[in-house]
Amino acid sequence: LSGIRIIDLTQVQAGPSCTQLLAFLGADVIKVEQPGVGDRTRHERAVSEDVDSFYFIVFNANKRSVTLNLKTERGRAILLDLVSRADIVVENYGPGQMERFDLGFDTLKRANPKIVYCTIKGFGSYGPNAHVKSFEHIAQAMGGAMSAQGEPGREPIFVAPGVGDSGTGLHAGIGMLAALRQRDATGEAQRVEVAMQDGIVNLMRIRMIDTFNTGKPIQREGNRTWGGPTVVYPCKPGGPNDYVALILAGDAWDTVLALAGRADLIGDPRYATTEARQEHGPEGRGDSQLVDPHGHQTRGYEYLDRTGFSGGRSAGLAGSP
What we know:
Blueprint: E1 5-9, H1 14-24, E2 28-33, H2 54-60, E3 64-67, H3 73-84, E4 88-91, H4 97-100, H5 105-111, E5 116-121, H6 136-142, H7 166-186, E6 190-195, H8 196-203, H9 205-214, E7 230-234, E8 243-247, H10 252-259, H11 274-285, H12 300-306, E9 311-313
Parallel strand pairs: 1-2, 1-4, 2-3, 4-5, 5-6
Antiparallel strand pairs: 7-8, 8-9
Helix pairs in contact: 1-7
């Protein structure tokens, strides 16, 4: 994207994650911030008052910044001058804020008849929730992600990855790349609208299959999934991330039972099929921990990796093994 200039009017996560991705692809991203304070995340959860927070850095590295007060005529005039020399404008203000600034799509088109304008909202610009502001957890709730996450019979829970914010950013980035091609083909300005709820729904397609098949709502099943099945097993020496996720298809199940010290369950009809293993897998696991076949108290996933299992260890985010 070398030679592409983006005016970034976004904050927090959904917009900044999108524009940062395009910056990593070579675009010149100019982030517009509030005079005196900057982006609200510069100091949120910061380890020191004198440095930008990691919250800000992980979503805004590789950008240039300028401060403008868009509520003033001078700030608005400077922004429109920037727009006249840019390719893309991205914003994720609350519903209606760009129009209150008198900086809506029609105004931006007058400043630059070939501008690509991307607006990121919780629920789009129309419909019963168009006026509602959205954040990560609201998007997960309203997009259906929470309904599928959690233990049976318990309350729905949030997932840790930013599927509502950063997932929306990915969808917005793809939309803008397509809009650039359309702009170049037609010579006309383009408008891209991305709703956080839509992004979540798109990412939920794999979990919708059972609903399509049965017409019933998604059931919360903890770590169990229909595609495998997948089971999470504890490993030696028993640290907080000493777990391995396994796809237990075919003969893999018998090997795992032996490693877990439950060879007595090999041949048990409760585990004869993948469906039965899915239903009864946690019972077979018990409190066992995976060990290698020689009895050494090493992490089971190291042995499983050497034997070619389809599995992965739970990797800690702080660099723990």
